[in-house]
């Protein structure tokens, strides 16, 4: 009887070690998945923040810089890019509204209403400043990371 009880204790002990190993493995996988999810979220947010500055930079360069102004319309500070197509004047308004970088492309004689246009990317802050031929842009993404860009207009 002594060998049977010893054998039972050994079996229970091996099963407990196996269960402990399984629980530790599961915890390790859950911790790794959570870390991966957080890293991917941070990368997405950083990419969106950088993409917003790149997007604005490309818009300004496409306008050759000469038709770029900073204006305040309806209490909204914005970057206004003027263009002329087929004898008609158009404006592109780029501004921050309700946590999104927005863009509105419309005829110059159409009015501007905050909230009109397309959502480009989520941002918490968008500031702009024009000093002569230099345009200073600064954005803050959802992850509170600030990025700045200085453009020299032609």
From TrEMBL:
Record-annotated membrane-spanning stretches:
12-33
InterPro entries documented for this protein: DUF4860 (IPR032340)
What domain of life does the native source organism fall in? Bacteria
Keyword terms: Membrane, Transmembrane, Transmembrane helix
User: Is the keyword Transmembrane helix in the record?
Assistant: yes
Q: What is this protein called?
A: DUF4860 domain-containing protein
Q: Which organism is it from?
A: Caproiciproducens galactitolivorans
